[in-house]
Amino acid sequence: MKYLIFLLILFEIYLYLKTLKYEYINSPINSMVFKHPFFRLIRKIDIASDQVIPNIYVFFYLSVIVFIFTFYMVYCEFLILLPSILIGLLGSMLPYIYISVKYEKTNDLLTLEVTKFISKLSQYATIKQDIYYCFEKSVDGTNGYLKNMIEDFLVSVKYEGYMDDKFDRIILKTENELLRNLMINLKQAAYSRGDLVQLISRLEEESYKLYSERERRKFDTHFSMIAIYFSMFVILLITYIFYSKESIRVFYFETVLGNYLISFFIILFLFGIVLTIGIRKFNY
């Protein structure tokens, strides 16, 4: 009964944290602050738009809970400290892995949305070379994260009358390189009053090339990821074989050298996970 009450308390804390929202620094906009890994993680969670991990508070809460639970279970079973800590760290990475996978999937959709958005901007720019007009006409066909960003931009410009720092906010708050590149170029065009039609036409052509290259890269990395997954599976298989034999199990779980070797294998496994996440990234 006491365990059920404890789980209910943890769940109530989780539900409360889901209602919170991290507020970005409003003024001044500091590019060094927004480039910090903490803020980059916040932006990834925002872009992922996930119901399970909707904000940074839930992310850290789940990471700590999984670490404590995993460490407790492993340590109670084997009574070895260092490997238990490392396995706990491995478990605590599950929320990050989940967000990274969800982010990559959502970011791919966002890249496609931005590509379509640029095409619409190109159409409306031929009618009127005005960035606000083009944004206002093009926003209706967008969805999700991009639509929220553009609508916030339009509302801010409408009531404040200038747009330079509004471009900066999108540039600093997004992790999508295509969207960031679009805003940088439009900001420069607004400042220099250059040829908007020519600029957007060039950006449209580049966006389709980048999207095609991104899709090609995703296909090419499949084989590398299969090799990494196979290596991780082999590590798990070796661990199982070691644990099934009495003499080997005694060496690895009851001697200092064996504990260090187990820790080394766990670190290799962690490295494989990090490598798997990193290999999916596409640098524009």
What's the pLDDT, averaged over the residues? 79
Secondary structure class reads: mainly alpha
Instruction: Give the N-to-C terminal Cα separation.
Output: 54 Å
Q: Which stretches are low in confidence, meaning pLDDT under 50 for 5 or more residues running?
A: 25-33
Secondary-structure element string:
HHHHHHHHHHHHH
| Range of helix content | over 70%
Give me the number of helical elements.
13
Q: Main beta sheet, described?
A: none
Based on Cα principal axes, name the global outline: elongated
| Rg, alpha carbons | 24 Å
Measured by DSSP, the beta-strand proportion falls in under 5%
Number of strands: 0
Q: Any overview of this molecule?
A:
- 82% of the residues lie in helices and 0% in strands.
- The protein has helices spanning 2-18, 31-34, 37-48, 56-78, 81-92, 94-125, 131-138, 144-160, 164-173, 177-192, 196-244, 246-254, 256-279.
- The chain has a domain at 113-211.
- By secondary structure, it is mainly alpha-helical.
- The protein contains 13 helices and no strands.
Helices and strands, with pairings:
Layout: H1 2-18, H2 31-34, H3 37-48, H4 56-78, H5 81-92, H6 94-125, H7 131-138, H8 144-160, H9 164-173, H10 177-192, H11 196-244, H12 246-254, H13 256-279
Helix pairs in contact: 3-6, 4-5, 5-13, 6-7, 6-11, 9-10, 10-11, 11-13, 12-13
Tags for this entry?
mainly alpha; 13 helices; single chain
Short description:
This protein is an all-alpha fold and 284 residues long. It has 13 helices and no strands.
